[in-house]
Amino acid sequence: MEISFFGGAGEVGRSCIMVKSKEAKILLDAGVKLGEKEEHPQISDEEIKSVDGIFISHAHLDHCGYLPHMYSAGFKGDFYATKPSIELIDVIVNDYLKISKPQGVTKEGMSAFSKHRKIAEYGKEFRFKDLTIKFANAGHILGSALISVSDGKETIVYTGDINLAKTKLLQGAELRGLKAGTLIMESTYGAKTDVLPKRDDTVNKMVASIKDTLTMGGKVIIPTFAVGRGQEILLLIDDYLNSGRLPKTHIYIDGMINRAMRIHRHNVIFCRDELQKRILMSDFDPFKSPNFFPVEKKSMRNQIVAEDTASIIVTTSGMIVGGPVLFYLTKLARNSANKLIFVGYQAEGTLGREIRDGAKEVKINHSKVKIELKVEAYKLSAHADRPQLESLPGKIQGVKRVIIVHGDKSKSDDLKAALEKRYETIVPKIGDKITI
């Protein structure tokens, strides 16, 4: 098989990897890269038309956002993902098109995108031309998958984004029974220093910080991804409100998080057993807490920022590259009683990264905004950290070769230095081809 890299190599964003066998040409993911400018996979329209199928690891834009472009460029095949991923992809892709208004997406392309999708179930092998494909739970977000691809001689396992530890929503990745000679793995937190603190310690510090702000009458803005991190944060904060560790307050939910919450509720069978039992065996549904106040009209935003009372605002987008968070920042950033809390990765070139790194003035919608509210960051990642990544190849039977993608190049190189003593290890560049 031949592996080609059109995006996501030496960078975080626009993941897009081609696997070519004797009979099939498939893509693993088709994402976009958001930042100061939007970047797409470096794949030609001619190459797109020759693709037989696309296999999506999960519903984040850097892994699925290029799908409308693919169909608009002439791709005629199906894309495959788990049931919850397909439902979530519809939500975030439509939101992306509405906010970013990217060039090149046609009505015909969107029509094809809405019709050409197939559900892949965890643990069930299926044939695609001369390939055998299998999806397994990756533990990253609802419906996320590792994807195994075999031509009968060689097998590749692609991690997409992966988390080995359980979270409030999900079990960790399911690696039992996976076999592969080649592992294509992410490296978002691949640097030697990327060791995540104990989750309970991080949560306790964050909750104490939120309490301080609420007690002083301030507002807490938490920008987050609509899918995965948003639900994790909401359920976590809600538990602390209900236990009395946080003072009772409104949790306003703005952006696509609301629709993603409903999809999580409908697909709770994919979540942790404990969450399923809470819904089935009690009167309390954690996805429909009375502490949650969805922002359903834009006019409600003015009301929220004008209120004298303290509140928590959980809103998109997670890296502050668009969405309602821009409104809240513009209105609330000049008040030092307020607080901005980051709970996820901030990619280079994003406004979130700029603010997290200490910018005191930023440009939002062509206006300068002074950042006088407090800014804090807590690592509540849904990605594997460095110790997990180092252990990963040893947990999949038969791995001889590791290809490291989806990470800043310095982090990928750092992880390579640790793994190359035991495996043939490659950090590819965009445009590279590897034959196995």
Q: Count every beta strand, where a strand is a DSSP E run of 2 or more residues.
A: 22
CATH superfamily of the largest domain: Ribonuclease Z/Hydroxyacylglutathione hydrolase-like
Instruction: Tell me the radius of gyration.
Output: 21 Å
Helix content: 25-40%
Please report the first level of CATH classification, the CATH class of the largest domain.
Answer: Alpha Beta
Number of domains: 2
What does it look like?
The model has no long low-confidence stretch (mean pLDDT 95). The chain folds into 2 domains: 2-193 and 382-435, 4-Layer Sandwich (Metallo-beta-lactamase, Chain A); 199-377, 3-Layer(aba) Sandwich (Rossmann fold). Helix 4 (83-100) packs antiparallel against helix 8 (257-266). The longest helix is centred in the N-terminal third of the chain and has 18 residues, at 83-100. The strands form 4 sheets. The chain has a 7-stranded mixed beta sheet. Strands 7-8-9-10-11-20-21 form a 7-stranded mixed beta sheet, with helices on one face. The protein has 436 residues and is of the alpha/beta class. The chain has helices at 45-49, 61-64, 67-72, 83-100, 107-115, 199-215, 229-243, 257-266, 273-280, 299-306, 325-332, 351-356, 386-391, 409-419; strands at residues 2-7, 16-20, 25-28, 53-55, 78-81, 117-119, 126-128, 131-137, 145-150, 155-158, 182-186, 219-223, 250-254, 292-294, 311-315, 339-342, 361-364, 367-370, 374-377, 401-405, 424-426, 433-435. The protein is built from 14 helices and 22 strands.
